[in-house]
Amino acid sequence: MTGTAPEDPRAARTRARLRKALLDECAERPLEEVGVASLVRRAGVGRATFYVHYDSLEALATDACADVVREAVEALHAWRGRPDPVHAPPALPAFFAGLAPHAALYRTLLAPGGGGPLGLVLHRDLRARSLAERELAGAADAPLVASAVAATFAGVLADWLHGLLVATSDEVADQVWQLLVALHMSR
What we know:
- By secondary structure, this protein is mostly helical.
- The protein is built from ten helices and no strands.
């Protein structure tokens, strides 16, 4: 699929069915226990169709979880004007609270420290958004801060999901927000 051509609606529907089937399967069992056969049966597509769209279950899982990446990026940028340096915008605690239904799947794809396939997508998308905003503001340190923001958020999110940080969704949202505001104010 190219970035300039519109997506075939049939392919989009098939991928949506596969993503939903995977999320439903992972609500019942860990990703490691999900098989392509049960997944395609649930999605109502053939095995060959699965492989036309994805080369592995991990690739499908990462795609299925890409919405969480978009939600994270939007939650971090859901403020206007001068940010409150202590309390996160309401979208950020809501984002953390909304992770619970698929937390086990996110933990599978997001390694402690922010690595793993979902961590790579999160870092890439968050860095791009932060870089664009910093450059628009004329910040000379845009690439450095954009990298730091992406790494900090991905790492905190992953460590919280893995239980390495003990905090409620509201607490972790405020804590990571404070770190990110400090990064933006540095330099």
